[in-house]
Amino acid sequence: MIDLGLTKLAVIGVVALVVIGPEKLPKVARMAGTLYGRAQRYLNEVKSEVSREIELEELRNLQKDVQDAAQAIKSDVENSISQNMSEVESAFNDSTPAYESVSFNNVTTEDVSRKAREFRRKKLVRNSAIPNWYKQRHGGKLHVTSGAARVARFRPRGPTTSSFF
Which Pfam families match (predicted)? Predict the structure, then answer.
């Protein structure tokens, strides 16, 4: 703004005292101060509005760039999906079913149930919280018994032959 030093302000004050007079000088100084304050506020408002408009324009440009990039990514993804789907459909239509050549004639239900039991038993032993070397060293159980097997093991067998009467 205007560069006013102390000497320039003193000269302006003396000239104003001589021209305006001592009676009206305080009112004029007060009015000049309020006008100066209004001018500063107006300039600050204009500066902030201009900076806001610049920021909004930058944000609009950024939003446009992001939307363009998102649209490009979306189209790329849609194109790749459609290409993959067409490849899968063509491969599905062109190929012969692979399940026809597999035969399950020699597999029995006993084999399947035996393998399932063995798998569950190994899984229970494998997922145990105590390691096998500790069980062997301290005489713990090395095999896991199911709940039904424990009930069958501890259930009394048949009726007793002794009478109570």
Answer: TatA_B_E (PF02416)
Give the residue numbers spanning the domain of 28.
7-53
d(Cα 117, Cα 146) in Å, to the nearest integer?
11
- Structural tokens at position 117: 């039991």
Burial class (CB in 10 A: 0-12, 13-18, 19+), 20: middle
Contact yes or no for 132/142 (Cβ under 8 A):
yes
CA distance 104 to 139: 43
Identify the pLDDT of residue 2. 67
C-alpha to C-alpha distance for 122 and 131, rounded to whole angstroms:
13
- Please report the pLDDT score of residue 122 as a whole number: 75
- Is the pTM above the cut of 0.85? no
